[in-house]
Amino acid sequence: MSIPLEPYNLYTSDPVLRRSVEREGGGQANSALETFGERVGSAEVSEWGFQANRHSPELVTHDRFGERVDEVRYHPSYHRLMDLSVGAGLHASHYDGLPGDGSYVARTAQMHMISQIEVGHGCPVSMTGAVLPALREQSDLAAVWEPRVRTRSYDPRLVDPAAKSGNLLGMGLTEKQGGSDVRANTSEAVAVNRGGPGGEYRLTGHKWFTSAPMCDAFLMLAQARGGISCFLVPRILPDGARNSLHLMRLKDKLGNRSNASSELEYADAAGWLVGEEGRGINVIIKMVTATRVDVTNWSASLMRQGVSQAAWHVSQREAFGDLLIDKPLMQNVLADLELETEVGTMMVMRLAGAYERAPVNEHDAVFLRLSSAVAKYWLSKRSTPVVREALECVGGNGYVEESIMPRLYREAPLNAIWEGAGNVIALDVLRALQRAPESGQAFLDELELARGADRVYDAELDQLRQLVTSPNLAERDARRLVERLAVCWGASLCLRHEPSIADAYVRSRLDGDWGTEFGTLGSHVDVDLIARRAIPNPK
């Protein structure tokens, strides 16, 4: 009879994560991360994840007297998860430190761990912290809201934000006629009195997707006289009245069931301008950069949990006289999955280090411009096939809802959609190379650190250098280019930091000794050794 994986420590069971944290400057938090890893790996927290997704949020538009209330009610398990994440400071603890002190790296490791257990509640957690760099474009608004956000208290009440022990912030960008093309948004903003930076406006329009609609306030884009602009729109106004934000419906989604995603109507709602009119995209992009790192992390987290569950299962499951983990073909499958997963972890933690040091390190700032897009594209694409194959390793027991595997599989495609779908991200990479060629150079400089370790890698790097510096990059080839950048980066990380898997990764991903499905590594690969790296070590 199989033994559940839980309880286990998600940090001590993942040596690649630990080494990545230490390499990126977060090693001083090892003790705290071990404690957090034990907590989120408990059977209790795992059950919260199941319950929060089994009992999806419910929309209440009116009370029994027919008055609009526009509330979303969540299962208690969702609130427990939020309390755990906010209490641990995942939303804003990194603002307490200094650039380069490892605080954001440690926070990213925490997000990596808890997202393996339940990822949906991470949406408002991520957005809350990400809002602050954008909100700081308007110092008077930031002075009011930032102290409210940077507490470690989760307070779900729909009351005056000033009366709460902690606030959550979200964003509303997407409209049905525009989608990713936010410049096509038609929501309108009309100034009250003279308007201007920090001034009050009245907003009218419809947002097709607004995640976590029970946040205390949102950053949203609307058309003002000066062009598309960014506004802070609270749920409750300073006089205690409810703002004219009407929840029309909650989306019935494939996955991400614990997190409410709504259609939101702005019916002459009050909002305050952040920055100058016409510079809304420049403001909001400061938020999107941060959330993009988290979305990339979520993809890596789903991969890690899926492969951990598969490895744990096959290490116990006996078939045809042997444990599955001892079967060479199963070893090949699991080793192949582990290669993808370890590279994903290293990419995410390298992004975390670059994001944290960007304010004080020019290379990291420039490197982040391209690498965040490359990693987001690649890992969000790889997570679905990785989770699918991991589910197959678990067999029929992985296909039933009592298993976490169906939830992981439903979650995976979302990360390829929000914060920029595949084509949007691929075109962003092309745009960066053409308009900011220094970003391409910084990326190549990073890859150069592994030169000389492998002849196949060196040859691929030479070809990439020619491509990246070419003035004739074609739009139709953008995805192919991003894929090559990602795989070469993954090979670089393996060669530099995880040499025991480097040859397997390079021979398969760069040298063509690979099939079209997982489990097709060449005969030279020690699949037994790599497969056993994937097995967690529970208490």
Order of helices and strands: HHHEEHHHHEEEEEEEHEEHHHHHHHHH
Annotated CATH homologous superfamily of the largest domain: Butyryl-CoA Dehydrogenase, subunit A, domain 3
Q: N-to-C terminal Cα separation, in Å?
A: 18 Å
Find the structural class using helix and strand composition. Answer: alpha+beta
Kindly state the percentage of residues in helix: 40-55%
Text of the CATH class of the largest domain = Mainly Alpha
Are there runs of 5+ residues with pLDDT below 50, and where?
Answer: none
The Cα radius of gyration reads 23 Å
Index terms:
539 residues, alpha+beta, Butyryl-CoA Dehydrogenase, subunit A, domain 2, Butyryl-CoA Dehydrogenase, subunit A, domain 3, 2 domains, seven-stranded mixed β-sheet, two-stranded antiparallel sheet
SSE map:
Layout: H1 15-23, H2 30-40, H3 43-54, E1 58-62, E2 68-73, H4 76-87, H5 103-117, H6 122-135, H7 139-149, E3 169-172, E4 188-191, E5 200-211, E6 217-224, E7 227-234, E8 245-250, E9 261-274, H8 280-314, E10 318-319, E11 322-323, H9 328-357, H10 362-394, H11 405-411, H12 422-435, H13 437-448, H14 455-468, H15 478-497, H16 499-510, H17 527-533
Parallel strand pairs: 3-6
Antiparallel strand pairs: 1-2, 4-5, 5-9, 6-7, 7-9, 8-9, 10-11
Helix pairs in contact: 1-9, 2-5, 3-4, 5-8, 5-9, 6-7, 6-8, 8-9, 8-10, 8-11, 9-10, 9-15, 9-17, 10-11, 10-12, 10-13, 10-15, 12-13, 12-15, 13-14, 14-15, 15-16
Written description of the protein model:
The chain has 539 residues and is an alpha+beta fold. It has 2 domains: 159-279, Butyryl-CoA Dehydrogenase, subunit A, domain 2; 280-539, Up-down Bundle (Butyryl-CoA Dehydrogenase, subunit A, domain 3), CATH 1.20.140. The chain has 17 helices and 11 strands. It has helices at 15-23, 30-40, 43-54, 76-87, 103-117, 122-135, 139-149, 280-314, 328-357, 362-394, 405-411, 422-435, 437-448, 455-468, 478-497, 499-510, 527-533; strands at 58-62, 68-73, 169-172, 188-191, 200-211, 217-224, 227-234, 245-250, 261-274, 318-319, 322-323. The strands form 3 sheets. Strands 3, 4, 5, 6, 7, 8 and 9 form a 7-stranded mixed beta sheet that branches. Strands 1-2 form a two-stranded antiparallel ribbon. A two-stranded antiparallel sheet has the order 10-11. Helix 6 (122-135) runs antiparallel to helix 7 (139-149) and helix 14 (455-468) packs antiparallel against helix 15. The longest helix is centred in the middle third of the chain and has 35 residues, at 280-314. The chain is globular, with a radius of gyration of 23 Å. The protein starts with 14 loop residues before the first helix and ends in a 6-residue tail after the last helix.
